[in-house]
Design goal:
Structural class of chain A: mainly beta
Number of helices of chain B: 30
Oligomer: heterodimer
Strand order of the largest sheet of chain B: 12-13-14-15-22-19-18-17
Strand content of chain A: 35-45%
Helix content of chain B: 25-40%
Number of strands of chain B: 22
Largest interface: A-B, 86 and 76 residues
Mean pLDDT of chain B: 87
Shape of chain B: elongated
Number of strands of chain A: 36
Distance between the termini of chain B: 76 Å
Low-confidence stretches of chain A: 1-56
Structural class of chain B: alpha+beta
Mean pLDDT of chain A: 90
Largest sheet of chain A: 8 strands, antiparallel
Strand content of chain B: 5-15%
Largest sheet of chain B: 8 strands, antiparallel
Helix content of chain A: 10-25%
Radius of gyration of chain B: 38 Å
Chain lengths: 555, 828
């Protein structure tokens, strides 16, 4: 296809002719449509005849590198309508849990309470996909995991193992695998998981209730010191150990709608912006940690709690101050700045395909509900704690991205459903698959903290000139406010002076030396000036690094 | 970009080389949409036309006037350098009418000596570029997706569709490259076609044909705007243009970005990099440092040329000219009306415009205050509708309405043909009689959505809402209304309400929605709470004779000759029927019309036919509570089991359950059985006798104390061959399998299989008792009845017992290691 920009240049060259003759001004194109036509024709002919090698390549598009294949999608309807209905005469594939079974089949949990087995899901185009109902009657299942030969799902009130004793592909035992957390009947009390970590623990996360009614309060627990009331272990992450023991582990969650382990088997969750949660965030799950929301501390004095009761929560201080004042508070491994990297984070998926999904093997992918997109995270460990960076990755899904599951060929199944909230895209629900086109995008692959700046790693060799020029980069940093209000603006934003940019010998890395890095601040990079050796601009030039700790020495 | 589009469309280069904006007619004089449509070609000068010009050309911004013809004002120009390309600002200032076809901004620079003009332009551009104030940021919320730099992410084809569907083309040019999804004929087209004619032929035959509407010209979009500033403008036009002539169409950020991308793609670029945007927000301001003295000079010119009269600017006062009354438009030295005058703004008016303005000024001078309030209000309505160009969409008193070329672009979501009413903006005849003042105001503010099936959107005219609503009401008010204004009749008897519900079922339901529900494939206005919008008097008049108030309406007459078409309801009394319908529509607590209820249930009612249906859900706490499993059996006998408290909680017969709330309602409401003969069973399923032989229920109150001894655990269920579940649970040392099935098609049979965990015999304290009834009427040991009319039976050899405690009489059977099963039959 003829490049847009080349055409424009030729177009202009031609347009200038009459202008230079001084006929300018009368809206020439408006007056003489015929002229316009002739010029168009000439330009088109010229462009076809001679490739315009001197022009810059067109702006790269995500779709050149990652292709979206639609397996099922619905017409959109008002996602917040009180009497919402699915599209008539179709399966309401509000995909809320995905589990790849083999190289043909995918199990899909849907929000109305069923599990379906889809076959031929890898077909491209997916014209022969078949649907088979495996389980039904579940209460809003929001996760699905193939575990030790059977499917585990998470209902509002229990984790359930779906067993098919007679192997007829229909579940005949719904075994209660774990239960016992508080459910007051509030709509917002979602339960997510399970996902399995390195030690075989099955993790789950429990949403806080929102606006409990009186009858619901009677089923809740109150911590009168902090004046918070919630159902038992709401706002907590819990594990079911391989021995079958259900244990509360960590607290402070608001709306933890996604969990996932990295390749090392450490478990993470995402939280969503709201009261006490400044913006969406990614955290490592571990015993004794507290993340954001004090409502979860309603359960802090219950037997099994891993957190010591506290007397007071600071309200209205900056996040770095809150970390100082509240010893149980652990900073997120990654803040996902609002709007820039989504508006409501969901699932976490590690690319475990060892390269079959492109150049980001081992990195985490974060689902995004409102913007119907997927973001990408690179993590590193500084002094034993995870921290890292997020990048935009792929947008344009048909509806809210709720679940992701990597298929056996490395491609990624994406479960969609936006009911109850809002999202971009033409559909209310569905299932899509994201396929790498085997072309490597020019991207920031990694961003690593250094004592005096950052090291950037790119997916393709760099053009020395642009990459070593400090003007090719901009860096600012900001933090957030920790408070009971909904979300936080970006506080104390400040630009950083970049002292130098040094390109590595292999041309894949740049060492940025930066003045006055700030601990516990998000450092936003825009590397829009950098070009690859082929002269390409970055597919995404923005990156947001959560610098909880500045490393003491070069690594 | 145009080339790209053409190649995508794959049509002939010859046709597509032309962007549709190129094809617009270049207006030589100021273009005011309603003036062009109704007055531009009139032979006689018209006073009202002149008044429209006086406000729309901002004449009254300089020439004070004591009757209400406020000047429309002009765009906010602070921050212009942030929004517009500076070269465009310069070219626009140097010659507005040539830079933008039909511009209403007068030429001002000619008032300066020629030698000074270039310098003045530079100074003005510098001054207008000083304030980098960006548009207010777009607030993203869960309901408002705002992608990072969304303005760069617009898609041309989506923008093209949106532009032609949401209402832009009511005023702006149509792009022939866009094909509406389905060409729906308008009522008029249908009629003309029935005569074997086409619209164009009407005029040739000397008939009154609907006149074509000239599109409002746009600037050369991509020369003027950045994608960012255009998107921001489309989202909130009133921020920059408070006059509201370009209204907000309630575009979401991504929608605005799509339209902006489309407009850019369709525009003729005169510069190579005009659509090149830097990715960072702040850098769209060209941060060139400008000489302070140049800025000051610009400010002086701004003041000198009276720019501030129309473009409010802090620190600069408007400079008023002669009062309107003192003007002599017919004289030779007629200032602004004369383009050869060097000391006044040059508007480039057409001779018709000059004549209309002259006429308006002359009549203003003679104007006497009138006491006819109705006429004053009516004139006010017409003037406002002309000024805001409401007529582009709405017809009133035979004037205006969507133009014939635009008809096809007004569609409804399902392309259902329900006449013009189903897709064209409604006529505003007697709207002040029909709608309440508050509702009109809400609609004008863009908040009154009763036609969600329209693709076109009612724009927001917030600043005019109050005055316009008041004027509509004063102009259209009927004398009879005050007395007959009755709000919904709160005292309506149930019989009246039921009659209203039946009437809705007998007719309205075929076309109208009610409380968000409608019959499949039906689109129409939702009639719930109609009293918040419509006057009772109009409602009755419309029902009695729809065509009398709305010509061509498809609303049928249910009361031909004043007689009801449904004689069996309320004795066919029309007055009482209308009253009952009104009462029902406005009642809060009445059931849905039967047909809607059935249609809704059709999709969501669970009806067990050959196999049991099982569903986990929330139920009321008196029933199975938050951990409920409901099971419906093909014998139409159903039960709810509480898996937290391990109790059979409720049983019922007949219809089973509506699953809509459980499946699809965000707020996860409790499920309610649909059937009859509902019986709630004891709150506690188990009891024991403690060491002192005292009876204790294992209920919520005692659960905590007994926790360790009698831990309850639901273990799940297996689904047998025929589909009925077997629940498994443990309590204390007992492991129980609980199977509940239909019995003799008239009741339930429950079988509990009991396994004790651990060794040894159970002593009396370790025995657990299954509580079967708490309202037992003592009868025999193995067969009893209850006050809730339940007959219960257990098999021989079971240890059963009655215990009286306060008002309750418990009947229970012992679970111990001597029995391996207990059967209980429930019949009711």
């Amino acid at each position: 296809m003829v490049k847009l920009k080349e055409l424009n240049l030729i177009w202009l060259a031609l347009k200038r002719i009459p202008d230079s003759l001084g006929i300018r001004g009368l809206g020439l194109m408006n007056v003489f449509p015929l002229f316009n036509l002739v010029v168009t024709l000439i330009a088109a002919i010229l462009c076809c005849a001679s490739p315009c090698a001197w022009a810059e390549p067109a702006k790269p598009q995500e779709s050149e590198y990652y292709r979206i294949v639609t397996i099922a999608s619905s017409q959109a309807s008002d996602s917040r309508a009180k009497n919402w209905k699915p599209a008539p005469d179709s399966l309401a594939l509000e995909a809320s849990g995905l589990a790849a079974i083999d190289d043909s089949r995918l199990a899909v949990a849907i929000r109305k309470g069923e599990v379906w087995i889809l076959s031929n899901v890898y077909d491209d185009p997916p014209s022969k996909v078949t649907y088979h109902r495996f389980a039904s009657g579940l209460h809003e299942p929001l996760g699905l995991l193939l575990h030790q030969g059977s499917l585990l799902t998470m209902q509002r009130t229990e984790m359930t193992r779906l067993i098919d004793h007679d192997r007829d592909n229909i579940c005949d035992e719904y075994q209660t695998f774990a239960s016992g957390w508080g459910v007051t009947g509030n709509y917002h009390e979602y339960a997510f998981g399970p996902k399995v970590d390195r030690t075989g623990n099955l993790w789950m996360t429990l949403n806080l209730g929102l606006g409990l009614k009186n009858e619901q309060k009677s089923l809740a627990i109150t911590n009168s010191k902090l004046n918070v009331t919630q159902g038992l272990w709401r706002g907590w992450g819990m594990v079911l150990t391989p021995d079958g023991e259900l244990k509360p582990m960590c607290a402070g969650m608001r709306s933890p709608s996604g969990l996932g382990a990295n390749l090392e088997g450490d478990m993470f969750y995402t939280d969503q912006q709201g009261n006490w949660v400044a913006t969406n965030s990614l955290h490592q799950l571990r015993s004794g940690a507290f993340y954001h929301h004090p409502d979860s501390l309603a359960s802090v004095e219950q037997p099994g709690s891993t957190i010591k009761p506290i007397d007071e929560i600071p309200d209205g201080v900056t996040f770095p101050e809150a970390i100082k004042k509240l010893s149980i508070l652990k900073p997120p491994a990654v803040w996902l700045p609002y709007k820039k990297v989504g508006q409501s984070a969901t699932d976490i998926m590690v690319d475990g395909s060892d390269g079959k999904f492109g150049p980001f093997a081992g990195q985490l992918f974060i689902g995004e509900f409102t913007q119907s997109s997927i973001n990408r995270v690179f993590l590193e460990k500084i002094d034993g704690e995870y921290q890292g960076v997020c990048f935009p990755f792929r947008e344009g899904f048909a509806s809210a991205v709720l679940r992701m599951e990597q298929g056996k060929d490395g491609s990624v199944f994406v479960g969609l459903s936006n009911r109850g909230w809002s999202s971009l895209g033409p559909a209310s629900y569905g299932l899509q698959r994201l396929v790498w086109t085997q072309k490597i995008p020019f991207e920031l692959k990694e961003m690593r903290a250094q004592p005096d700046g950052f090291e950037l790693v790119f997916t393709k060799p760099l053009q020395q000139d642009s990459a070593s020029k400090i003007d090719s980069y901009e860096i600012t940093s900001h933090t957030y406010r920790y408070h009971s209000q909904y979300g936080s603006e970006e506080l104390q934003e400040q630009p950083h002076t970049i002292k130098n940019a040094e390109v590595s010998e292999d041309g894949l890395r740049v060492r940025l030396r930066i003045e006055s890095l700030r601990e516990l601040f998000v450092h936003s990079l825009n590397a829009s000036g950098v070009r690859s050796a082929d002269g390409e601009p970055l597919l995404h030039s923005n990156a947001y690094y959560t610098l909880n700790k500045i490393p003491a020495s070069d690594r | 970009m145009r080339f790209l589009i053409t190649s995508i469309l794959g049509s002939s280069v010859f046709v597509l080389g032309l962007s549709f904006f190129d094809c617009q007619v270049f207006a030589e004089h100021p273009f005011i949409a309603s003036y062009e449509r109704f007055y531009a070609t009139k032979d006689e000068p018209d006073e009202l036309a002149g008044q429209v010009l006086l406000t729309e050309l901002n004449c009254t911004a300089c020439h004070p006037i004591d009757v209400g013809l406020p000047s429309k004002g002009a765009p906010v120009v602070t921050g212009s350098g942030n929004r517009f390309h500076r070269e465009w600002i310069r070219s626009y200032l140097s010659s507005p009418g040539q830079s933008k076809s039909g511009s209403t901004m007068p030429h001002l620079m000619h008032q300066l000596p020629e030698s000074e003009r270039e310098a003045a332009l530079s100074a003005l551009v510098a001054f207008l570029s000083t304030d980098p104030a960006a548009e207010p940021p777009i607030v993203a919320t869960g309901a408002n997706p705002v992608a990072h730099e969304f303005w760069l992410k617009g898609q041309v084809e989506r923008g093209r569709s949106m532009y032609h569907q949401v209402g832009c083309v009511a005023c702006h040019a149509i792009d022939e490259a866009f094909q509406p999804a389905k060409k729906t004929e308008s009522d008029l087209e249908r009629k003309i076609a029935a005569l074997g004619l086409e619209i164009d032929e009407l005029e040739e035959m000397g008939l009154a044909a609907p006149k074509k509407v000239k599109p409002v010209p746009m600037s050369s979009i991509s020369d003027k705007y950045y994608l960012r500033s255009l998107s921001m403008f489309l989202i909130a036009p009133h921020v920059i243009r408070p006059a509201g002539r370009m209204p907000s169409l309630k575009l979401q950020p991504h929608e605005a970005a799509d339209i902006a991308a489309y407009l850019f793609a369709s525009a003729t670029h005169s510069k190579p990099n005009n659509h090149e945007e830097k990715s960072s927000v702040n850098t769209s301001v060209e941060n060139t440092s400008v000489d302070k003295s140049l800025i000051d000079a610009g400010k002086q010119y701004f003041e000198q040329l009276s720019c501030a009269n129309c473009h409010p600017m802090a620190g600069i006062k408007p400079k008023m000219s002669k009062a309107m009354k003192e003007l002599t438009p017919s004289s030779k030295s007629n200032g602004c009306l004369n383009d050869s005058s060097v000391s006044t703004p040059r508007f480039g008016l057409s001779s018709e415009q000059v004549a209309d303005i002259t006429k308006a000024i002359e009549s203003l001078k003679r104007k006497q205050p009138t006491s006819d309030q109705k006429k004053t209000a009516s004139d006010q309505v017409t003037l406002t509708m002309l000024q805001l160009n409401c007529f582009a969409c709405h017809e009133r008193d035979g004037q205006g309405g969507v133009g014939p070329d635009q008809w096809a672009y007004f569609e409804n979501v399902q392309h259902v043909d329900i006449g013009d009413e189903g897709r064209l903006p409604p006529p505003l005849d007697h709207v002040g009689r029909k709608l309440t003042r508050d509702w009109i105001q809400k609609v004008v503010e863009g908040k009154g959505e009763v036609r969600p099936h329209f693709l076109a959107r009612m724009p927001i005219y917030a600043d005019h809402s109050k005055a316009l609503a008041t004027a509509f009401v004063s102009a259209d008010r009927m004398e009879s209304m005050t007395s007959s204004e009755v709000k919904s009749n709160n005292q309506a008897s149930q019989a009246i309400l039921t009659a209203g519900r039946d009437l809705f079922d007998s007719g309205c339901v075929q076309c109208h929605a009610f409380r968000g529900e409608s019959l499949p494939g039906t689109i129409g206005i939702d009639l719930a709470d109609v009293d918040t919008r419509i006057h009772r008097e109009w409602f009755e008049a419309f029902l009695r004779n729809p065509a009398g108030l709305k010509k061509n309406t498809r609303m049928p007459t249910f009361f031909p000759d004043g007689k009801s078409a449904v004689p069996q309801i309320l004795d066919g009394d029309a007055t009482r029927q209308i009253e009952s319908l009104w009462a029902y529509l406005n009642a809060k607590d009445q059931p849905l019309p039967l047909k809607l209820e059935q249609s809704s249930l059709q999709s969501f009612e669970l009806i067990p036919t050959d196999r049991p249906i099982l569903l986990r859900t929330f139920m009321d706490s008196r029933s199975a509570g938050t951990h409920a499993i409901v099971v419906g059996l093909p014998q139409q006998i159903h039960f709810a089991f509480d898996t937290k408290r391990l109790r059979l909680a409720e049983i019922w017969k007949g219809r089973f359950l509506n699953a809509q709330g459980t499946w699809f309602d965000r707020f996860a409401p409790s499920a309610t059985p649909l059937g009859t003969s509902r019986i709630t069973l004891p709150q506690a399923s188990f009891a024991l006798f403690d060491q002192d032989g005292k009876f204790r229920l294992v209920d919520i109150a005692s659960e905590k104390q007994l926790k360790n001894k009698l831990q309850k655990k639901f273990l799940g269920y297996r689904v047998g061959e025929e589909g009925s579940p077997v629940f498994r649970y443990s309590i204390g040392r007992f492991l129980i399998e609980d199977r509940i099935q239909a019995h003799d098609d008239s009741g339930l049979k429950r079988h509990l299989k009991i396994l004790t965990l651990g060794d040894g015999d159970l002593n009396e304290q370790e025995k657990l008792w299954l509580v079967i009834a708490d309202d037992a009427i003592e009868d025999e040991t193995l067969t009893i009845s209850t006050r809730s009319r339940l007959n219960l039976r257990v098999a021989d050899g079971v240890d059963s017992r009655f215990v009286q405690q306060q008002t309750a009489t418990y009947w229970m059977v012992a679970l111990d290691d001597r029995v391996d099963g207990i059967g209980v039959v429930y019949q009711w």
